[in-house]
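Researcher: Last one for today. Full complex below.
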Amino acid sequence: MMTTETIKTTCPYCGVGCGVDAKIQQGNLIAVSGSTEHPANQGRLCVKGSALDETVSHHGRMLSPKIEGQNVDWDTAYSHVANKLSDIIEEHGPDAVAMYVSGQILTEDYYVANKLMKGFIGTANIDTNSRLCMSSAVAAHKRAFGSDTVAGCYEDLELADLVILTGSNLAWAHPIVYQRLAKAKAERPEMKIVVIDPRKTASCDIADLHLPLKPGSDGFLFNGLAHHLIANQQLDHGFIDQHCEGFDALSESVQQQTLAQTAMDCDLAEAALNTLYQWFAEYERSVTLFSQGINQSSSGVDKGNAIINCHLISGKIGKPGATPFSITGQPNAMGGREVGGLANQLAAHMELKNPDSLDKVKRFWNAPDLAQRAGLKAVDMFDAVASGQIKAIWIIATNPVVSMPDADKIKQALAHCDLVIVSDSSDSTDTLQFANVCLPATTWGEKEGTVTNSERRISRQRGFLSAPGEARHDWQIISDVAQHMGFKDAFNFTCSADVFREHAALSGFENIDASGNNERDFDISGLANISDLEYQNLDPIQWPVNKSYPQGRKRFFDDGHFYTASNKANLIAITPRLPTYAADCDQLILNTGRIRDQWHTMTRTGKAHRLLEHIATPQVEIHPDTAAKLAIKNNTLVSLKDRGIEYIARANISDSQRTDSLFVPMHWSDAFASHARANSLVRPIQDALSGQPEFKHSPVTITSL
Ligand code: SF4
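Model: Here's the assembly. Have a good evening.
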């Protein structure tokens, strides 16, 4: 009889971070199911997670390292990459090289990549596709709390009396959190759910109120809420006085943002807006969950702070059922933030601009050439590749030729770059076409390591399948290149547990301030000495994990302690503004985003046929009135254009759209159809503080073909 083994691992798709039971027979994955013990999903899996077993075939995998299209052995590839990088650094300095990584890689991969670039090459030119996903929320957290802290947890959505989903189609983008919310609503129908979104999405199915606001006007709406709370004295004065700074400036900044003014600014009915404001004032237990609709904006940081302001002045933070909640897109965007995988971070939630932190990390890593200033963020990084300032870029587990804004420009930049190294598990992404060196990497089911989900929960991804061909783990490839560059001792890792222990030790290194508190929020030093076996068996746990919280921590800020110099939260007075480019009279606003059954650029989900049954081809959602005006018929081909760039797809006429907007999925690439890269139409406008691009608001023309 054949024996079946069950391995507990974590889904590689979204930031919910569901536990997966993988059933293995004779070395093959035969089925997956949701782990009942995992706190995030409690036995559930969404359609993408349920199809994981259909995506692990070796078909389409990169099997061998390649230099200029020729198969080579690993030693040749390592020597080539190390010599080329060293030559470029010697001639042009460390800032002439860059790394662009991914929220798909594991924390251990991220840690080694960041250590090589910032610690030993000596440049902070390492950024991640998480820049496109949640960097505005990171910056908003840091401005308000002095730290990048997600204050609450998923359970808060179930405990709340009011849940506001803003800039989030939770039902499609984070289905299991949505299912938990829907169950809570079914059990307590008196619970209120409000969706704030220009589109009437699937998340509206359980909503008591949908506010289809003017695209990009969220900052006005939340300043209007702050005005309402202040004008009606619905404030937590004790919390403000003891734990917040900047109330007077905030109060003054929202003085003119009356209900009538806000309704006009947001193109909403006053009565509906007032209902939201009254509910928020009334319900102690309120959660505001925000995602890409807030973050992917030229004022994404301000919008995040406008939301957080409302929670702080009403004391709705750090308590069961009361928190602002940023939900991340990717499975390990949080892990990337923890190791410092963004160009403006150092490591373990330490800052590049803090001399004390630089000194600590330099000593911890024994890295005399540690980078001293922030590197280039994603859009600027590829601009620097295009201009020739960056001469070598190493792209790991991401497909920027499809996913970046102004994606055609990424093609041109890579085509003219002296050295493009691409590590990927797939052998045929759009980005690989520009690679001088291709490095085959392991993927989900083969890799060992950890990821952190949106509620700060660290979970293990476990390897149970053999890697095809010569594929190796990313942390291993990066360490080997580092060793070939001469950085021997610092990259002497023998397994992912080694990397994790060092990362955990760094998180707690000299992490006590003058008052005896942890100086930084992220501290998992309680895991720094775990054995290989304990690492192998590590159960999901929410950080921090240290002396004060050996079993992890559900919520932050219940003690009123923030990580600013004064230990008080900052209320940030923002001036709301609309997106950078408005539509001309013959244009509509393009919003790009995810659909329910696909993930990123489909290199994995595209392998599962049943995931194509939901939406099989690229499409453009358009309102019936707009379609009628432009003589566009359902299911016929339409062309979207801007700046000479064209996207072609079939029209999907739907009253879920506003008349001024279009929605297009971002997943398809030229590998599936020509003119199918939606993000090529997105203008490379960024938030000045976070560098996050404005994916949600690109003016385009649409015509019938
Ligand atoms: Fe995977 Fe996200 Fe679905 Fe959970 S909700 S199964 S993490 S895609």
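The chain has four domains: 4-54, 66-130+339-449+463-493, 135-331+566-570, 588-704. Residues 74-92 form the longest helix (19 residues).
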